[in-house]
Specification:
Chain A: Belongs to the ABC transporter superfamily. The structure holds three protein chains of three kinds. Chain A is of the alpha/beta class. Chain A has 13 helices and twelve strands. By secondary structure, chain B is an alpha+beta fold. Classes of the chains: A alpha/beta, B alpha+beta, C mainly alpha.
Chain lengths: 346, 580, 337
């Protein structure tokens, strides 16, 4: 299937495609995505809704709708390939080797079971311990994620918790088995701004403590700026830019990334000085535009001699620090546009 | 008013609802062809004793208390555990409608004026506990049956005919022996004398009612007596779960020597109450049940199945009952006050449609006069013959012309809304009468108040132009008096409603009824009933529809099965079973 | 919680008063407004040859000549203080709560009801167990494979179950299983559970299945819809993300939520079961409350009807109370105070 013979990274996604055949056509939610992530590293996957970032994370977890989806490519995790593995095999990795926290902690927790019970359930599933020991462990975890009086909150139900506390509890549940990979899908989107920062701090601290690999999935570059070592920008089911967080923030290459950066709030500038938001809307995943998927929304597509509308750009290196971009504009022109038009407004 | 009513027609059926419910649903009738079985005789003749006969009732019993029961199946069945002074003979066909002495040695001996009736009891008859039966026990039984507060269900013939002198109930009796009623004398333990306040030639019919079966005063618990009726018959109650079931076993103190009328075969009798009627039909055919006790025949669902299967069909008897489905022609409503217009209706009606409404030949036989053939002395005649009973438009138009309505007229036809067969009747008549220009407006009324507030209330019927009223009538026992009095006595019509005579008004008929009451000669009396029948038909007050029939299924294990004209169903006294 | 229960019970008593008053009104006020006299009413409870005088006596005895509120007051008094009734030779005391005496059979109603209650309860309990288990299981399997052959077949049968009347399925199954094949008890069979539990179950098997069929169908459809909804919930994804086996996900996380609305329906159905019991008991000739109520209504026997209405209302009220309390246990978000 692949000719790549280099030993896989800890998490190594190679040419992942997740397609959903529907009556209206094939939804190409993820269409040829590759990336790697090492232990102890934090990767931020950024994109609008419908860019394929959530499907990517669910595919890694094996939680995509298996009956409805056609999946191809490879997902290597700790030396084990998951796409071709049996569902039972992947299930056993879930919760233990890889864990996930979700956007809305209220709907993500079962309303009829106490918070403690739900943590205990996850822990005991992978550890042969008594209920009492599991409870002790759960209380420790709740305490660790910053739930005050953890022991007495153990029997509370999700609806007794505030949003931030629920997300802390979700994190406690996800970390209960010391997973090597933690995927956080929009972990702060549903939370107040002040709480957002606390949760991000918590994730960072815990990641350091447990030395897990972390994928943060978000539409918010601010979150990535806080947390990520590396950044992967997705658009129309594909990666369009990837590199270290520093490099991407300092010298963003793709016009789409410029747009994302431009929409970040800044306390020190007037709104009128800023870039206009990206016009148009994300592409339909059934009929992805030919050529560069972003070209209908791109202000510079006419500078590509028509390539943008005909040829799909592949990721290619910009410089030597691993920063890569999928864009038909030449590096020079991009630098020029960035320096002249974009940077002053960022 | 009251005395006149008593004189004319003591039996006032105030409630049609009660009539419909109590008339036995459709008391079975004698015998006629049907099902291909030999009906006149006895099936499976046998004198083998033992076994259990299983009965089922689709409803509840009104009461097992002899003073408080008014279903003909119940009277049929009561002979198993009680002995009245007189009873219908346990015999097939017409013989079953004859009266024979039971507790008494002979039928009643009337005084010349038919106002005093004397009976002498047989010797040696005992209650189930061994106590000898005396005439005082019979008197007490009749006394208590007078108490309609305690026993509201039973018939009221004794209340109406005995010279009560204000007596109401033994429970309010100052006599220490509770025998204070002056209308009944018991000169000795074997003699009982009834004093009537007016002559009544058919008193033996009263004496066959279960209320003359003796009741020991010491065991009488009033309305609770039905929980354990003290037996004088061949069977006594074993268990009794009111409203659900009861069982009977042989009564050791019943002595065959005292009883020429009974040959009890089974050792045991089981009766289930409140059983789904369709299920009863199924169980009869599957052998899980022996007798559908109400004797009304299989239901419409099972009827088709039975008739289609030769084996099953061979095990059926078609019983014609003492019930007439008819349509009254109301002379209060113009132009039906004119006899020719009434005759036009008689001629125009298609009776085959009437029969179809009741399920065809299985449901009944086309009636051309009032008295059902099972009534002793009844004659079949046809005052208004039409080809194939399908109506004669020419004769009808001729009558219309004589009536001064050559183009016909419009009037209403009422029926009981809850009864699909009566609806079908009304519609069939509507069709056939329309052919001669008589237009009927169909008007349904609720069953419960049909006689009380609507068709049976003269001013309502007149105001609403109810010229035709679909109805039905059955006799308490096969006798002209019980059948005709309520239908044709004009003096029984009350302005307040609740009538069962919807419009027969002929002083001659009233006079004939009075004459019959004092005619003690049976043959002469029966002749009067036929004369009344003919007169009413001549007057064209009633359009007879059909004499009701029931298709009775007879499981092969039953022995001595026959239909008696007395109750127009199987004779329960005679039945035996081969099933042990 | 205790206060909540007390409040519900007080409301229940008021409801009973209203319901019985309504029954009284239907029986007495409506016919009176329509022009019927007390004697017209009384004529339902006498033999067919009774004359006006005799009917009047019965009307007085049954109390029809009194104003309706006096009659209703007498009924209430009997409930709290008991009542005396004449059997003819003696007077019998009917101890509180006295539901009155049947107009027609002159039996006290309460013992009749208590006598028949076990039959109906047996029928209801067995049928409810069957329909819940069968219905929910079918619904779950259908929901996990929507559009599969099983799903379509099950939903087809379910549709038939909802549409076919009990007296049809009942008589058909009696004809086939009891009479043709002889493997189930014939109609009218009932053995009290304390006499012989096996015979009890054997006798009731067919009525149970017939009655359950009607409801199981609805429950299968409800469960299917509920499960389809629930299995799309976020917390199901969470449960899977934990690595729980699919079976645990479906039963512990999915079904538990999907069952909550079914519990509500179950409470209502259990209360209204008397309706189904009427048909089932009539079809199978079981001597239960349902059959009793049919006979009561057919015979216009008011005290019996009142008794049945009381029992039925109490049934509904209790069933709903129990369900509401269960709800609080099942769904921790619900708390009564």
């Amino acid at each position: 299937m692949t000719t790549d013979v280099t030993p896989p990274a800890f998490l190594d996604v190679r040419d992942l495609r997740v397609h959903f055949p529907t009556d209206d056509g094939v939804v190409k939610a993820v269409d040829g995505l590759s990336f790697t992530l090492e232990r102890g590293k934090r990767l931020g996957i950024v994109g609008e809704s419908g860019s394929g970032k959530s499907v990517t994370s669910l595919s890694i977890m094996g939680l995509h709708k298996a009956r409805a989806a056609k999946i191809s490519g490879e997902i290597w995790l700790g030396g084990q390939e998951l796409v071709s593995a049996g569902s039972e095999q992947v299930r056993k990795l879930r919760g233990r080797t890889m864990a996930m926290i979700f956007q809305d902690p209220l709907s993500a927790m079962h309303p009829y079971y106490s918070v403690g019970q739900q943590i205990v359930e996850a822990y005991r599933l992978h550890h042969d311990v008594s209920k009492r020991d599991a409870r002790t462990r759960a209380v420790q975890l709740l305490d660790r994620v910053g739930i005050p009086q953890a022991a007495s909150r153990f029997d509370d139900y999700p609806h007794h918790f505030s949003g931030g506390m629920r997300q802390r509890a979700m994190i406690a549940m996800a970390l209960s088995c010391n997973p090597e990979l933690l995927i956080a899908d929009e972990p702060t989107t549903a939370l107040d701004v002040t709480v957002q920062a606390q949760i991000l701090d918590l994730i960072r601290d815990l990641q350091a403590e447990f030395n897990s690999a972390v994928i943060i999935i978000t539409h918010d570059l601010g979150v990535v700026a806080e947390l990520a070592d590396d950044i992967l920008v997705m658009y129309g089911g594909r990666a369009i830019e990837t590199g270290s967080a520093a490099s991407v923030f300092e010298t963003p290459q793709h016009p789409y990334t410029w747009g994302l950066l431009g929409s970040l709030p800044r306390w020190d500038r007037e709104r009128s000085d800023r870039l206009m938001p990206i016009p148009g809307s994300p592409p339909s995943l059934i009929n992805v535009p030919a050529g560069c998927a972003f070209h209908p929304r791109c202000a510079y597509d006419e500078l590509t001699d028509g390539l943008a509308t005909t040829v799909r750009p592949e990721l290619r290196a910009v410089g030597t620090n691993g920063h890569r971009v999928a864009c038909h504009l030449s590096d020079e022109r991009r630098r020029q546009i960035f320096d002249d038009e974009i940077r002053p407004k960022l | 008013m009251r005395s006149r009513r008593v004189a004319a027609a003591a039996v006032i059926a105030v409630s049609t609802l009660a009539l419909a419910a109590c008339g036995g649903g459709s008391s079975g009738g004698s015998s006629s062809s049907g099902g291909g079985s030999d009906v006149g005789g006895v099936h499976n003749v046998s004198d083998v004793t033992g076994g259990t006969i299983r009965y089922a009732n689709s409803g509840d019993w009104d009461s097992l208390d002899p003073a408080d029961t008014y279903y003909s199946y119940s009277w049929n069945f009561a002979r198993l555990y009680s002995r009245a002074l007189v009873m219908f003979k346990s015999a097939p066909g017409k013989d079953g409608a004859t009266l024979v002495p039971d507790l008494a040695e002979s039928l009643g001996k009337p005084s010349d004026d038919a106002k005093t009736w004397t009976y002498t009891l047989r010797q040696g008859v005992k209650f189930e506990d061994g106590t000898p039966v005396t005439s005082k026990d019979v008197k007490y039984a009749v006394e208590r049956s007078l108490d309609k507060t305690t026993f509201p269900n039973g018939p009221t013939y004794f209340n109406d005919f005995l010279d009560l002198q204000g007596y109401t109930s033994p429970y309010a009796d100052s006599d220490p022996n509770k025998l204070g009623l002056k209308a009944i004398d018991t000169p000795d333990d074997r003699t009982i004398v009834f004093h009537l306040k007016q002559p009544f030639s058919g008193f033996d019919y009263f004496a066959q009612m279960p209320s003359t079966a003796p009741v020991p005063v010491a065991k009488d618990t009033g309305s609770k007596y039905k929980e354990h009726v003290v037996s004088t018959g061949p069977y006594m109650f074993d268990t009794n779960d009111l409203g659900k079931s009861f069982t009977m076993k042989r009564n050791p103190n019943w002595d065959q020597a005292t009883d020429p009328n009974r040959k009890p075969l089974p050792d045991r009798i089981e009766v289930a109450l409140n059983v789904n009627s369709d299920d009863i039909d199924n169980r009869l055919q599957s052998g899980d049940l022996d007798v559908a006790i109400e004797g009304t025949g299989v239901g419409p669902a099972a009827q088709g199945k039975v008739l289609a299967d030769q084996t099953l069909k061979a095990n059926t008897d078609s019983a014609i009952s003492a019930r007439l489905w008819y349509t009254s022609i109301n002379s209060d409503v113009a132009p039906l006050d004119n006899i020719h217009c009434r005759k036009a209706v008689e001629y125009a009606a298609d009776k085959t449609g009437y029969q179809r409404a009741y399920g065809g030949a299985t449901g009944g036989e086309i009636a051309t006069n009032l008295l059902p053939p099972v009534i002793p002395g009844a004659e079949k005649f046809d005052t208004y013959p039409t080809p194939g009973n399908a109506g004669d438009a020419a004769k009808a138009k001729d009558e219309l012309a004589q009536c001064g309505q050559p183009n016909g007229f419009t009037t209403g036809i009422s029926y009981r809304a809850e009864r699909p067969k009566e609806k079908a009747t009304a519609e069939a008549l509507q069709q056939s009468l329309a052919k001669v220009g008589i237009n009927l407006e169909v008007k349904p009324y609720p069953l419960g108040d049909y006689a009380k507030l609507y068709a049976g209330k003269p001013d309502f019927a007149k105001a609403n132009s109810l010229g035709l009223n679909v109805f039905g009538w059955a006799a308490d026992w096969p006798d002209g008096y019980g059948f005709l009095a309520q239908m044709v006595d004009s003096r029984a019509i009350r302005a307040s409603g609740g009538n069962t005579n919807f419009g027969v008004k002929d002083p001659e008929v009233d006079a004939m009824l009075d004459k019959a009451l004092v005619t003690t000669d049976t043959t002469a009396r029966e002749k009067i009933w036929v004369d009344i029948d003919k007169k009413v038909m001549d007057d064209a007050y009633i359009l007879p529809g059909i004499w009701s029939k029931g298709l009775l299924y007879r499981p092969p294990n039953l022995t001595n099965v026959f239909i008696t004209d007395g109750y127009q169903m199987f004779d329960y006294l005679a039945l035996g079973t081969t099933r042990k | 919680m205790a206060i909540y229960i007390v409040r519900r019970l007080v409301a229940a008593v008021i409801l009973l008063l209203i319901v019985t008053a309504a029954v009284f009104a239907i029986f007495f006020l409506v016919p009176r407004l329509a022009g019927a006299t007390p004697e017209d009413l009384a004529s339902r409870y006498v033999g067919k040859t009774a004359d006006a005088e005799q009917i009047h006596v019965i009307a007085v005895k049954l109390g029809f000549t009194d104003p309706i509120w006096v009659q209703y007051g007498r009924f209430l008094k009997g409930l709290v203080a008991g009542a005396d009734y004449s059997t003819g030779p003696t007077t019998v005391h009917c101890p509180a709560p006295c539901f009155g005496y049947s107009f027609l059979t002159q039996n006290p109603v309460l013992p009749d009801l208590l006598d028949r209650l076990p039959v109906t309860l047996s029928l209801a309990a067995g049928a409810a167990l069957i329909w819940v288990v069968a219905g929910v299981a079918t619904g779950v399997v259908s929901a996990l494979r929507p559009g599969s052959i099983f799903d379509r077949a099950a939903m087809g049968v379910a549709l038939a179950g909802v549409s076919l009347p009990i007296f049809f399925t009942g008589l058909l199954s009696l004809a086939v299983f009891s009479y043709a094949l002889g493997i189930t008890a014939p109609g009218g069979s009932y053995t009290p559970i304390e006499d012989n539990p096996f015979l009890w179950a054997y006798d009731l098997l067919l009525p149970w299945i017939t009655l359950a069929f009607l409801y199981a169908a609805g429950y299968a459809r409800l469960t299917r819809a509920g499960m389809l909804d629930t299995m799309g919930e976020d917390f199901i994804r969470t449960a899977r993300a934990k690595g729980l086996p699919e079976r645990t996900v479906v039963v512990k996380h999915g079904l538990r939520s999907a069952l909550t609305p079914i519990l509500t329906i179950f409470g209502l159905d259990l209360g209204l079961l008397l309706g189904g019991a009427i048909l089932t008991e009539s079809t199978y000739s079981l001597p239960g409350i349902g059959k009793y109520s049919v006979d009561a209504v057919v015979n216009n026997d008011l005290p019996k009807v009142l008794g049945v209405v009381m029992v039925g209302s109490i049934f509904i009220i209790l069933a709903n109370l129990v369900v509401d309390l269960c709800y609080a246990i099942v769904d921790p978000r619900v708390r009564y105070s």
